[in-house]
Amino acid sequence: MPERADVNDELRLSRVRFVLVETSLSANIGAVARAMKTMGLTELVLVRPQQPLDAEALARAAGADDLLARARTCDSLAEALSGCRLVIGSSARARSLAWPEVDPVGCAEQLLREAAEGEVALLLGRERSGLTNDELSHCHLLTRIATNPDYSSLNIAAAAQVFAYELRRTTLHWQATGALQASGCMLASGAQRARLEEEAPLSAEAVRSDLATADEMVSFYGHLEQTLEQIGFADPAQSSTLRRRLRRLFNRARPDRTELNILRGILSAAAGRKRPDRFRR
Amino acid sequence: MPERADVNDELRLSRVRFVLVETSLSANIGAVARAMKTMGLTELVLVRPQQPLDAEALARAAGADDLLARARTCDSLAEALSGCRLVIGSSARARSLAWPEVDPVGCAEQLLREAAEGEVALLLGRERSGLTNDELSHCHLLTRIATNPDYSSLNIAAAAQVFAYELRRTTLHWQATGALQASGCMLASGAQRARLEEEAPLSAEAVRSDLATADEMVSFYGHLEQTLEQIGFADPAQSSTLRRRLRRLFNRARPDRTELNILRGILSAAAGRKRPDRFRR
Q: Which helix (H) or strand (E) holds A233?
């Protein structure tokens, strides 16, 4: 349910960016742009696309070339996610490390709820291999489209269409729900709705202001990993599993800026204990 | 709600045929086949396709070539719809003649409900001009995907993907509803129930086992606060605000036992830096 009725639907949708990571075929990028535009989405970000936005991309965009023209191209995922308060990664398969997962309906709801407060992102991986575990560690949630177990080969633009469709459908549904609530029809289900929202991976309560952005989290993780090395706990460069685990843990907590400052203060204090040794030499 | 529990999901989906009318591009037919197969649909019927099923169609089918191979080609729409008890036509725009219209969710529900009894069809028109009024007259209902009013140019395979996705999602949703009904916990009216269940994302707890217990968290907080004192960050006994903030942060993350062990390892490493000082004295 939208908490902020003052943020209109168009603004919400404009704050949902689709981030494509190392897409192989420019045709797919064009098709994603078209899928997005049909549903009123505008923000496309490309991380290291493997082909330039050529004639094939334009052909498949079919009138959504304005989205291609304004699409930002980035060298790193961190750069693409800069400023985002919520990042959801699309995954074709269930992951061994159990990440919190939502279906496309839940994905749309979480993105739109958080878009009332700021920028959010949906991450779509490579056509063949999806997202790496390292890329997933940027995500607060995963989302997966339920497919035929015998044939799960969803085209990236088809997946983008489903996610974009659910974003628009949810937006329209909230409009309708608002109308129903005004007429008192939804009152009976209020308790159930509350229960359902409590069970959501990111509850409605979790819509907090002043959350740390994706780039602030990247900077925090750098500090964390450096400190772990300094205090002799581990060399995170040599343990990508440890690094991912810690990122996933703190991503789940979704620290706000004050909390991040406290954590960084703790890291500095922990590392600072090294100084007396150094001065003594 | 399924009327006939004795008809299984696979059989239902196999009774939903997608009928493409005078499709211009074979590539689109291939892409529709792929979209269908990802969602467990198998029956594709082509009315006067404008291109043969060539290499382009096969390339876009990407492994759904079995659907193309078994696709029936017909000269007339009547032939393509033979044996169907329900026909729903997809329309890109609202029609002047007020046809009964359902959204894609309603479309999936109607098709699957009737598929318990026999064959049903979804009709997808030409890429540019859709279905003629004469063709629409074969339909019991129209369905329309709500699009951006400024850009409603949904690719035919993208539309097929949305309809196929809703068919599979509704199938899975009915399975879940059956379970909920058996437990007697759903009391809201049918329509509201459907909406509410749509809104319930998968619970994070459902996919994470081995969460730390409350007493393990208490023990961790003791360790954390002791360490903060040791590394000279703060005396948490004197700052209940800090203590509360940190507890709230880690409570939100809901660590499992492995994560808690990692965190405690880090605390020990941070505090351990004190030992050399102590030994030196």
A: none
In order, the DSSP letters of A8-28 are: -HHHHHHTEEEEEES-S-HHH
Residue B101 token pair: 């219209």
Please state the ipTM of this predicted complex. Answer: 0.77
Assign residue A46 a region: left if phi > 0, alpha if psi is -120 to 50, beta otherwise?
beta
Report whether B168 contacts B119 (CB < 8 A). Answer: no
CA distance A260 to A132: 26
Residue B200: closest CA among A218, A200, A188, A47: A200
**A179 in B contact zone (CB under 8 Å):** no
Closest B-chain CA to A252: B253
CA nearest to A155, candidates B44, B39, B173:
B39
Burial class (CB in 10 A: 0-12, 13-18, 19+), A185: middle
pLDDT, tens digit (0-9, with 9 covering 90-100), for B155-204:
999 999 999 999 999 999 998 877 444 443 333 333 333 433 333 332 33
Using only C-alpha atoms, chain B has a radius of gyration, in whole angstroms, of: 29
- Given an 8 Å threshold on Cβ–Cβ distance, is B34 in contact with A177? no
- Coil, strand or helix: which one is B200? coil
User: Angle A18-A23-A27 (CA atoms, 0-180°, nearest 5)?
Assistant: 95
Q: Which residue type is seen at A128?
A: R
Burial of residue B87 (CB within 10 Å: 0-12, 13-18, 19+) is buried
Measured CA to CA, the distance from residue A204 to residue A188 in angstroms comes to 19
User: What pLDDT does A7 receive?
Assistant: 66
Name the residue among B152, B205, B255 with its Cβ closest to that of A249: B255
Q: Is the Cβ–Cβ distance between B3 and B113 less than 8 Å?
A: yes
For B76, the token pair is 């007339």
Put simply, whether B175 touches A (Cβ < 8 Å) is: no
Q: How many angstroms separate the most distant Cα atoms in chain B?
A: 97
Tokens of B37: 């197969």
Expressed in angstroms, the distance from the first to the final Cα of chain B is 76
Type of residue numbered B195: R
Between CA B73 and CA B153, with CA A158 as vertex, the angle to 5 degrees is 80
- Smallest Cα distance from A133 to chain B, Å: 17
Q: Which residues contact A50 (CB under 8 A, 6 or more apart)?
A: A22, A23, A24, A25
Positions of chain B with pLDDT lower than 70, given as ranges = 1-7, 94-99, 179-209, 236-237, 273-281
**Which residues in chain A are closer than 8 Å to B189, comparing Cβ atoms?**
188
Cβ–Cβ gap B153/A100 under 8 Å = no
Residue A8 tokens read as 């209109």
Q: pTM of the full predicted structure? A: 0.78
The sign one gets for the Cα dihedral B4, B9, B14, B19 is positive
B17-34: pLDDT as tens digits = 999 999 999 999 999 999
**What does the alpha-carbon distance between residue B35 and residue B157 come to, in Å, rounded to a whole number?**
7
**What sections of A51-189 are H helices per DSSP?**
55-61, 65-70, 77-80, 104-115, 133-136, 156-182
What are the structure tokens assigned to B151, written together? 């850009």
Q: Which chain B residues have a beta carbon less than 8 Å from that of A192? A: 187-188, 196
Of the partner residues A31, A63, A255, the one whose CB lies closest to the CB of residue B249: A255
